[in-house]
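Homework help thread (please don't just give me the answer)

Our assignment gives two proteins as sequence + structure token strings and asks us to describe the second one. The first is just a warm-up. Here they are:
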Amino acid sequence: MARRAAPPGAGPAFYSGAPTRGQISDPDESSISAFLREEIFSPEKLPGNVSIVTGLVVFFGGIAAMRTWGELMIPA
């Protein structure tokens, strides 16, 4: 039995009309809000974001520690 193609622009037959997980149906969402939602607060990207924040905290914490207690490392 031959399969006929759907007419152009028909779209999927299983469309439910509801937004899928991770998508919102607000057409007026700004690009900044979309970036924050998709890249920063997305559960799939949480481990990478935590890794970046941890690295930044260690880096700036080291700078603060050296500025605070750096003289203690110089022999008298």
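The one we have to describe:
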Amino acid sequence: MFDLLVRGAQTGEQPWSRLHAEGHADYWGPAADYIESRHATWLDALL
């Protein structure tokens, strides 16, 4: 989602550009970082 918002802001594609301008990337960036930093833990829990 974060990457989609950033790409939308760069290209002007709607609704992603508007959502980025409204600050939605401020939530999704840290959320993506959290998930990525705990990838191994999540994977272990699923196996």
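TA reply:
I won't write it for you, but here's a hint about the kind of observation we're looking for: The two ends are 25 Å apart (CA to CA).
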